[in-house]
Amino acid sequence: MFNMMDMFGKVKEFQARMKEAQASLNTITESGESGAGMVRVTVNGLKQIVRLNIDQDLIRPDDREMLQDLVVAATNKALENVEPKIKAHLQKATEGLLPNIPGFDLGNLMS
After folding, report:
1. For the range 16-24, what are the long-range contacts, defined as Cβ-Cβ under 8 Å and sequence gap of 24 or more?
2. 8 A C-beta contact, residue 49 and residue 38
3. How is domain 27-98 classified at the CATH fold level?
4. What protein family is recorded (predicted)?
5. What percent of the chain has pLDDT over 90?
6. What is the spatial distance between Cα 33 and Cα 31, in angstroms, rounded to a whole number?
7. In this predicted structure, what is the pLDDT of residue 91?
8. Domains of the chain: which residue ranges?
């Protein structure tokens, strides 16, 4: 039989673990690069840029627009790369707390 008190307890535990997991997202990092590695951006699980490396050969006033495009491309790639790590981190932190209910997706809580 389904016990509501147990379910409420698990929801509280789920919320606590989710909060803890979200607080530690800054420890997850992923990088993206563009321009054959001439621009490399590293982001954390909070989707913040933590490192930007630009090859010195790209730092020329006449290449400003290309450099801007490469930074944007590398940043977008890094953000794309970190997304699966964020979801895996949050899923692992809350694993086994709530029952597997068909059609009930907790993925939206982990974005």
Report:
1. 17/93, 17/94, 17/97, 18/90, 18/93, 18/94, 18/109, 18/110, 20/93, 21/89, 21/90, 21/92, 21/93, 21/94, 22/90, 24/89
2. no
3. Ybab; Chain: A; (3.30.1310)
4. Belongs to the YbaB/EbfC family.
5. 42
6. 7
7. 84
8. 27-98
Rounded Cα distance, 21 and 90, in Å: 6
CB of 39 closer than 8 Å to CB of 33: yes
CA 4 to chain centre: 33
**Residues whose CB is less than 8 angstroms from the CB of residue 63 and which lie 6 or more positions away in sequence, other chains included:** none
Sole residue written with tokens 């930007």: 52
- What's the CA gap between 89 and 91, in Å, rounded? 6
pTM, 2 dp: 0.65
Whether 93 contacts 45, CB under 8 Å: no
Which tokens in the block code for residue 18? Answer: 């989710």
Task: Count the residues in the chain.
Answer: 111
